Amino acid sequence: xxxxxxxxxxxxxxxxxxxxxxxxxxxxxxxxxxxxxxxxxxxxxxxxxxxxxxxxxxxxxxxxxxxxxxxxxxxxxxxxxxxxxxxxxxxxxxxxxxxxxxxxxxxxxxxxxxxxxxxxxxxxxxxxxxxxxxxxxxxxxxxxxxxxxxxxxxxxxxxxxxxxxxxxxxxxxxxxxxxxxxxxxxxxxxxxxxxxxxxxxxxxxxxxxxxxxxxxxxxxxxxxxxxxxxxxxxxxxxxxxxxxxxxxxxxxxxxxxxxxxxxxxxxxxxxxxxxxxxxxxxxxxxxxxxxxxxxxxxxxxxxxxxxxxxxxxxxxxxxxxxxxxxxxxxxxxxxxxxxxxxxxxxxxxxxxxxxxxxxxxxxxxxxxxxxxxxxxxxxxxxxx
Length: 384
Prior knowledge:
The strands form 4 sheets. Strands 12-13-14-15-11-5-16 form a 7-stranded mixed β-sheet. It is an alpha+beta fold. It has 9 helices and 22 strands.
């Protein structure tokens, strides 16, 4: 674990890549086709993207997300310090509660999106792998001297996602509460194969599922244990991307960047109610103005006619006039048709609006549709 005082303003030691994840040999032994992603060698697929995508929608897929940054932030006044850095209301976050939040620059531009969990007297943050070093440097600069950032670089992170994820994982864990007692966006400590694990009911596919933080030295044994369940297969980056696209979930660096503020990105839910009225977070004036007045553009879902996919950077047209740009796009294995996310001028963002997309000089007919494209199936205990 790398213990970083928040007042140490030197740049963190950013490793050169591609680096190996704790499960590198495990992926290769299972036939994973490795590519460089976020500075690491990671499996893009095993048996094929479509097969892995559909398996996750029908059963349970195991993802290695150890490239993500895991941080523990603690110290005197940590709650107030994090509230000054993030547009989040931590006073309403219970022990073990998980909440989505955003790291914003001083103009309200999105530097990263992240998950925040209350752990004891501090907070556990999971940030994107491609931005974690920048995030650490940014947090070190803006957090006060009494707050410490612990980079949990000796921990691995796995995600088990799909409608049979709970069925597969429950027999393998023991804790003060049953795994089934966890609802969406809650976490707790468990023993998993005899290993200490922090498990939250969350994920990036739109399905029920869990994210599992374990010691890196135990990652291969735990991955083998979980993958040994009949419901589970390992899943690569390719299906992770198509699953999150169907779920309407944005990807940092594509669907949100410092050029985007949260409201146009469709992330108003990441600005908690109290913070909307009180402000006090980076870029608050711009974000609150967008909440009150509406943004000039909005992230929307597009359903595309035919079989040709529109990729990032394709221009969206109303007639012959450019009105937006695609930020994510591909073929939906579940819907068997191409879909995309794009930013378009707000006057063209209403569901049902007919548009077109210029793909290498060919106009593809498209219509604005609500997101998610495939309904979310998160588990909310007690919900009817």
